[in-house]
């Protein structure tokens, strides 16, 4: 278990305790603090002194999250490995369930489940495992490329150590999508497993998370995922039988996400419309997939832009958009629970 930490010393004891409380597995915990100015290194060293299963590395110089991730992964040993951020938590029984699937299916290199989001107090987890799903790597990649979104949160993932060694850690070329590229690459090296009907981890949502801004961070997020896809199809995925088709599907899905975000810039009316951001997102969509210049979402964006210029509100009234969004969110949630793959387009 590798636990990278930067300025999360106040979260670290709870995080580590959820690992030490795991039943049915032997745990080896390595905390790597990246020269946190908040005293996280001292917290890590105290935790290591209190339990022989815990070790700590307190860096004197900050090197950034990618090197910290990889140092943690390089420093742990065992058949399976988990990277758990110091602000996240494991659900009870998480490690034993993931390890059982990997032991039962040697062809699976990575297993994930569901991660509950929380801000302060984690909600009660579902603890009854319903079933396992095993996807051949190319089938999982097909689903993810067509959807465009990242369906997996880091704390819910367990990887076979041999797979992690083959992948040589996280890639600094995509600092905001290094986990996503890791999942894509894992699928090119083996099958992907999923645990159904049970909650495996908790992902903490707070102001310091990288992806909390609804539209302002969309360009970076979409661009980084696009870069991850491009690296993947130039390297690990270049020999897949349907590589060209899947690459085009990913580009199209991301273009539609960019346009959905651009439409969101007009949702609060002409006074609040962020027209420059909407234009940048629309330009990005066309760069990703030239055919997006004349798609349904682009036409809708042009109509809303024209109305905003005239001082009018969005084409679809707010109450109708809210109702649509509620239905779409529910359907997307059901799809995610059923298939394990999440669409990136969520605009109402």
Give the gist of this structure.
The protein is α/β, with parallel strands linked by helices and 348 residues long.
Report on the structure:
- By secondary structure, the chain is of the alpha/beta class.
- It has two domains: 2-204, Spore Coat Polysaccharide Biosynthesis Protein SpsA, Chain A (Alpha-Beta Complex); 218-231 and 240-318, no CATH class.
- The chain is 46% helix and 15% strand.
- It contains twelve helices and nine strands.
- The chain has helices spanning 12-20, 40-50, 65-75, 94-104, 137-147, 161-167, 178-189, 218-234, 243-264, 275-288, 296-309, 318-339, and strands at residues 2-5, 29-33, 54-58, 80-81, 89-90, 108-118, 131-135, 158-160, 191-204.
- Strands 4, 5, 6, 7, 8 and 9 form a six-stranded mixed beta sheet that branches.
- Helix 5 (137-147) runs antiparallel to helix 7, helix 7 runs parallel beside helix 8 and helix 8 packs parallel to helix 10.
- The longest helix has 22 residues, at 243-264.
- The chain starts with a strand and ends in a 9-residue tail after the last helix.
- Its EC number is 2.4.-.-.
- This is Glycosyltransferase.
- It comes from Phytohabitans kaempferiae.
- Keywords: Glycosyltransferase, Transferase.
- One of its GO terms (molecular function) is glycosyltransferase activity.
């Amino acid at each position: 278990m590798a636990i990278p930490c930067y300025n999360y010393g106040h979260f670290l004891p709870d995080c580590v305790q959820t690992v030490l409380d795991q039943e049915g597995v032997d745990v080896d915990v390595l905390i790597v603090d990246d020269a946190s100015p908040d005293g996280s290194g001292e917290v890590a060293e105290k935790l290591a002194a209190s339990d022989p299963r815990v070790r700590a590395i307190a860096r004197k110089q900050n090197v950034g999250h990618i090197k910290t991730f990889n140092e943690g992964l390089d420093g742990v040993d065992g058949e399976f490995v988990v990277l758990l951020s110091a602000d996240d938590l494991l659900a009870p029984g998480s490690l034993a369930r993931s390890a059982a699937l990997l032991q039962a299916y040697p062809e699976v290199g990575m297993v994930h489940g569901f991660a509950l989001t929380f801000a302060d107090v984690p909600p009660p987890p579902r603890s009854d495992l319903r079933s396992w799903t095993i996807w051949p790597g190319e089938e999982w990649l097909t689903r993810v490329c067509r959807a465009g979104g990242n369906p997996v949160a880091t704390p819910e993932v367990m990887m076979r150590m041999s797979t992690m060694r083959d992948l040589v850690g996280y890639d600094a070329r995509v600092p905001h999508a290094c986990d996503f590229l890791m999942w894509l690459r894992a699928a090119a090296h083996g099958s992907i497993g999923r645990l159904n009907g049970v909650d495996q981890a908790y992902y903490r949502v707070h102001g310091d998370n990288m992806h909390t801004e609804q539209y302002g961070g969309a360009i970076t997020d979409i661009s980084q995922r696009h870069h991850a896809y491009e690296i993947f199809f130039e390297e690990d995925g270049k020999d897949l039988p349907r590589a060209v088709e899947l690459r085009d599907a990913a580009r199209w899905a991301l273009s539609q996400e960019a346009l959905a975000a651009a439409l969101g810039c007009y949702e609060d009316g002409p006074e609040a419309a962020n027209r420059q951001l909407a234009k940048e997102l629309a330009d990005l969509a066309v760069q990703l997939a030239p055919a997006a210049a004349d798609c349904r979402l682009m036409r809708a964006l042009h109509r809303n832009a024209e109305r905003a210029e005239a001082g009018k509100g969005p084409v679809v009234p707010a109450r109708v958009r809210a109702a649509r969004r509620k239905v779409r969110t529910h359907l997307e949630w059901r799809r995610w629970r059923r298939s394990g793959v999440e669409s990136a387009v969520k605009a109402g």
